[in-house]
Amino acid sequence: MQAKVRNMMWVMAALSVAMAPQIPRMPLLVAVVTLAPLVWRLGAELKGWSVLPKLVRYVATALSLAALVVSYGGLFGRRAAVSLLAAMLALKLIECERIRDARLIVSFSFFLCVTQFLFTQSIFMPVYGLATITLGLVALAQLQRSEAFQLAVTRPSMQRSMFAELLFSLRLLLLAIPIGIAFFVFFPRWATPLWGVPENTLDAKSGLSDSMSPGSIQTLFMDDSTAFRAEFESAIPDPTELYWRGPVLWNYDDNTWTSSFLGRNIEAESRPQKSAARWHYTVQMEPNERNWLFALDYPAIAPQDTRITMDFQLLRRLPVVQLLQYEMASEPGYIDAPKLKETLRLMALELPEGLNPKTREQVQTWRRDYPSDEAFIRHVLTYFNEEEFHYSLDAPLLGLNAIDEFLFETRTGYCEHYASAFAVMMRMAGIPSRIVTGYQGGWYSEIGNYLLVRQSDAHAWTEVWLPEKGWTRVDPTAAVSPLRVQQGSRGALSAPRHMLDFDWVRSVRNGVDLVEQRWNDWIIEFSSQSQAQMFSQFGLDYVSPAALTSMLFGVLGIIALLVLPVLTRLIGQADKNPVARAWRNFLRRLKKAGFQVPASNGAMELATAATVELPGSAEEIYRIAGLYNQHRYSAEPPPAGELENAVKRFRPRKKSSG
Fold first, then answer.
1. b/e per residue, 254-278, with b = 16+ CB within 10 A?
2. How many other CB atoms are found less than 10 A from the CB of residue 404?
């Protein structure tokens, strides 16, 4: 393989790995226009295609921008901005003919790699970063060798195995590891980040929303990503008590439940006492760019920058854009609103007029037979349990009278179908009701002693208001499918969700999560408080930022002292090296002739600059620079004496002062 083709393959490899996590986040159209230049360049290198005309490149750029604007609605937001960077780097490939362009692509690939940490900081990200940097360093080394021999008359053979190239880059990275660890441990950390993510850039919201319509929670069942983890101080509650409270929905219109203004903005008048709370636990919540937190019924404390609303939602002032850990206490026996205000009663009974007449007629009949609220509720739950209702993902689409169709025709649905139908029936019977969305259940890690709650555990249930009992949780899904509560969302469905949905695969994923949880505890959550606790073990109750900075420089000094013998040995070897000695002699002669030698220039770059001021010695200068490069980079260098003799014979004419 020719050197130019080999170099471009390394460049494309670095760019491909850098953009790999971003491609699945892109809309299909954007992914196609981003990958197309990469595929074309691969074909061009293998088949020897010529460079595309400028007009074609301009059209490709315009189409890429149009695809981004159409797919994202603009170029603002993290996804759009990072996708723009990936698309522009891919387009740069179709006009990359110079080493400078290739070097630019690799450099920006490093930046593209860094942007991926805006989306996730999981334990797999360091592996991804290591792969990108390693490939990028190999590409830069290859480009540097090509540039070194760009003006040489004869190009020496530089065949090295892929393993050797990768090993060389990994050795470079190893030099940075001690310094990186020193900065991680000793660099002063602030209680809050120095900068924040603007809310208008939060375009990748995940998990539950503040509305619910048929199918909205059902779609989360396919998502096994982590929602949060909970570590209890005592025993794990029974599965029937693991209802993780999230958004509370009051308003029902056009088959959609939404939260209310009052529910979002009025704080709870009272709450359980923390000292009397039955459950004490710590929640480690993954970023979802939402403003709500999750807790068991009923939260007794509010985490920092969070308030407890009148319907016991935990609403945070800012969205959760990074891993968040908070302490929580809950008391399930607390009575929420033993007396219901009239405004809230009317809001919890409101229904659109004229919809679902069959359901209304049926409810009125049952209500005459069961005038007691609790008896009526039991009858409806028995109806769900004994009739032919099915808990399934294959729920058909519902029309305008969705509750009528569900109860009397389809009788198949997910948790949101049953919760919505039950709440509407309660309101028709004059019983105040509302929908609560959140998560139910979770997987317990015996080794890690924590509960893992995934997005697929998303759930919806109903709360009804009863005199003296206040708001009371009723889960109609449990009447249809008790396994949903006892064994979790996955245990309630016998059929696999997709071709890789096996028990052993889920077991492996759950086991691997322990590593992820430890990564979060030790690395991601290493804050100013963690830093202080680490130093307190050595009797240092408080370490000021100035002291931390001094420690950091002290550790860096120790690292330098440990590395100094190696550097001294290398320098000593360089002094004994006849090639290095001859090159330094050559530079001194250039300086005597009046040429100021730039410290950062490579051999051929220096030769080009020197011949401008010493044109009479151009042939000798290029020959010496070429011989030096061959000794530095060639697998079969010429004898060192050839370079030494060339330098000895070199007599540059001094630069004239006039």
1. ebebbbbeebbeeebeebbeeeebb
2. 20
**Strand 211-212 versus strand 443-445 pairing type:** unpaired
Contact present, 216 and 209 (Cβ < 8 Å): yes
Q: How far is CA 607 from the centre of its chain?
A: 47
Are 376 and 463 in contact by the 8 Å Cβ rule? The answer is no
> CB within 8 A of 9, min separation 6: which ones?
1, 45
CA distance 43 to 134: 24
Mean pLDDT, the chain, integer: 85
* Cα distances (angstroms) measured from residue 235 to each of 231, 282, 475: 10, 13, 24
SS3 state at 63: helix
Single out the residue of 449, 451, 453, 450 nearest to residue 440, CA to CA: 453
Q: Where are the beta strands (DSSP E) in 28-102?
A: none
By C-alpha distance, which of 335, 203, 222 is closest to 272? 335
Give the helix/strand (H/E) hosting 9.
helix 3-19
In the block, which residue shows the tokens 């009797």?
539
Helices (H) and strands (E) in the chain, counts: 23, 18
Closest CA to 465 of 337, 575, 576: 337
Helix/strand/coil for 524: helix
Mean local confidence (pLDDT), 91-105: 90
pLDDT tens digits for 270-292? Answer: 999 998 899 999 999 998 889 99
- Contact between residue 148 and residue 632 where contact means Cβ atoms under 8 Å apart: yes
> How far is residue 631's CA from residue 638's CA, in Å, rounded to a whole number?
7
Q: Compute the distance between CA of residue 607 and CA of residue 604 in angstroms, rounded to an integer.
A: 5
The residue assigned the tokens 């555990």 is 457
pLDDT tens digits for range 634-648 = 767 788 788 888 888
Distance CA 491, CA 510 (A): 15
pLDDT at 210: 87
Rounded Cα–Cα distance for residues 418 and 477 (Å): 6
**Distance of alpha carbon 88 from alpha carbon 63, whole angstroms:** 11
User: Euclidean distance between the first and final Cα of the chain, in Å?
Assistant: 51
> Cβ distance 519 to 122 under 8 Å?
yes
Query: pLDDT at position 603, please?
Result: 85
User: Cα dihedral sign for 41, 42, 47, 48?
Assistant: positive
In the predicted structure, residue 362 carries a pLDDT above the cut 90? yes
- Residue 140, CA distances (Å) to 67, 131, 146 in order: 31, 14, 10
Amino acid, res. 293: L
Q: What are 402-446's pLDDT values in tens digits? A: 899 999 998 888 889 999 999 999 999 999 999 999 999 998 888
CA 373 to chain centre: 48
Going by pLDDT thresholds of 50, 70 and 90, the confidence category of residue 491 is low
Query: In sequence order, what are the residues at sequence separation of 6 or more whose Cβ sits closer than 8 angstroms to the Cβ of residue 531?
Result: 185, 189, 543, 548
- Side chain identity, residue 214: P
> Quick one: CA torsion of 387, 393, 398, 401, rounded to 10 degrees?
40
Angle at the Cα of 374 from the Cα atoms of 372 and 376, rounded to 5 degrees: 65
**β-bridge mates for residue 474, sequence order:** 462
**86, 106, 90, 87: which is closest to 7 by C-alpha?**
106
Q: What angle do CA 440, 476, 399 make, to 5 degrees?
A: 105
Backbone φ and ψ of 100, nearest 5° = -60, -40
Give the closest residue to 640 by CA, choosing from 586, 584, 581: 581
